Amino acid sequence: MLEASSNKPGEAELPPIPGKRYFTIGEVSELCAVKPHVLRYWEQEFPSLSPVKRRGNRRYYQRHDVILIRQIRSLLYDQGYTIGGARQQLTSEEVRDDSSQSVQLAKQLRSELEDILRILNA
Fold first, then answer.
1. Burial class of 76 by CB neighbour count within 10 A (0 to 12, 13 to 18, 19+)
2. What CA–CA distance (Å, rounded) separates 100 from 69?
3. Across-strand partners of 58?
4. Which long-range contacts (CB under 8 A, 24 or more apart) does 9-15 make?
5. What 3-state class would DSSP assign to 97?
C-alpha cells in the first residue's frame, strides 16, 4: 500500500479505519494511538464523544466517534491545544464545515481504493 505523507512534520500516520460498524475501546485505542483510560477521560471532557454502552457498561464506538477521537488527538497532541481549547475548537467547528474530517475520510477512501486496485492487478 502506498503511504500518504503527513501534512505536518512529526505527525504520525494512523492506521486506516476498518469498515466495521462498532469498535471496542481496545480497537479504538490502537486505531487512534491513545490509551483506553485516556479515551474514558475524554468522554467526560468532550460532550460530543459518547460511545454506545451495552451489557456490563461496555463501550462500543462508531466510525464517527473514531474520527472525532482522531480530531481530539490532533488538537491536543499535534496542535498543542489544552482540553478547554480543544473543546472550544470542536464546538466552533461544529458550526462550520469540518475540513479535518473530510481529509481523514479522503485518506480512508484512498486507502480502500488502493487495496481494490492491488486486488484487481493481482
1. middle
2. 12
3. 54
4. 10/78, 11/74, 11/78, 14/70
5. coil
Q: How far apart are CA 97 and CA 88, in angstroms?
A: 15
C-alpha cell at 18: 476498518
pLDDT along the chain (122 residues), means of 10: 39 80 95 95 93 91 94 94 92 65 80 91 89
Cβ(42)–Cβ(86) under 8 Å?
no
Report the run of H or E that residue 28 belongs to, with start and end. helix 25-32
Residues, the chain: 122
Which residues are bridge partners to 59 per DSSP? Answer: 53
Q: Which residues pair with 4 in a beta bridge?
A: none
Beta carbons within 8 Å of 52's beta carbon, 6+ residues apart = 22, 59, 60, 61, 62
φ, ψ for residue 93, nearest 5 deg: -70, -25
- Where does the chain show beta strands of DSSP type E? 52-54, 58-60
Q: Which residues pair with 102 in a beta bridge?
A: none
